[in-house]
Design a protein that fits this description.
Elements (H helix, E strand, L loop, with lengths): L1 E4 L39 H6 L1 H8 L1 E12 L2 E12 L4 E7 L13 E6 L2 E5 L10 E5 L16 H7 L3 E12 L2 E11 L2 H4 L6 E8 L5 E12 L2 E12 L6 E4 L13
Parallel strand pairs: 1-13
Antiparallel strand pairs: 2-3, 2-12, 3-4, 4-5, 5-6, 6-7, 8-9, 9-10, 10-11, 11-12
Amino acid sequence: MVVQRNGAGRAGAMVTALVVGGVLATATGCGTDDTAIASGAPADPAVTVRTAADRLVAAAGSRVTTSMEMATGGTRVTIRGEGTYDFRHRSGQLTVTLPEDARGVDERRPITELLAPGALYMKNRGAGVPADKWVRVDTASLADGNLVTGGATDPYVAAELLRGARNVTYVGEEQLAGVTVRHYRGSAALPATVAKGFSKGAVPFDAYFDASGRLCKVRHRFSYVNRGRPVAVASTTLLYGFGAPATVRLPAARDIFDGKIQP
């Protein structure tokens, strides 16, 4: 993926976290080869999980499908995303689809999200933002480190979170979209910079790796309190089609909205 920078916008106001939820749709297998996984558990499951981000960088890029589920007060909402990501440049583009309303009608047009180091850009954000303008969010300013705010967890951030994996166990081999993968389970310690945004300092995860040791799927379960109400969030990232090219063109400063964002 080539990141083309056409200017930098001023830091926008922090965007209210999008409500989310759901189950990943079936997608193309994550592996790009037919190498069989050797039988038996790896010698050190924790090392396999903690080095997931490094192997993704070596793999360059991939296609991505995301799903985020939010449950609070008996209500569940789903947001899904799809696109491509370059792990070497830590940049990507996702089309994020918001949930339908109670009548089964789409509430808004899909949001285009551009992921870049330290920044999240969103188009069709709504909330008083003109349709032809982008919202830029400084992700370093977000209490959750952009794990939840954008309605889709940044794929590299999701893999980086596994560096803090502990109590890792090997569950066994499973089939994921026709590919044999190894399933690991544990909890990941949240970095101090984002831990304050959640109710607990660690998040449970399930991670799945293909025959080449690449992370194909990871599911994190977060919890936090919003206006006095507990919120449970399950974020799932599916990676496949490794080596898929993409170009991310960051918006020019003149195209970035600098007005007030409605709540």
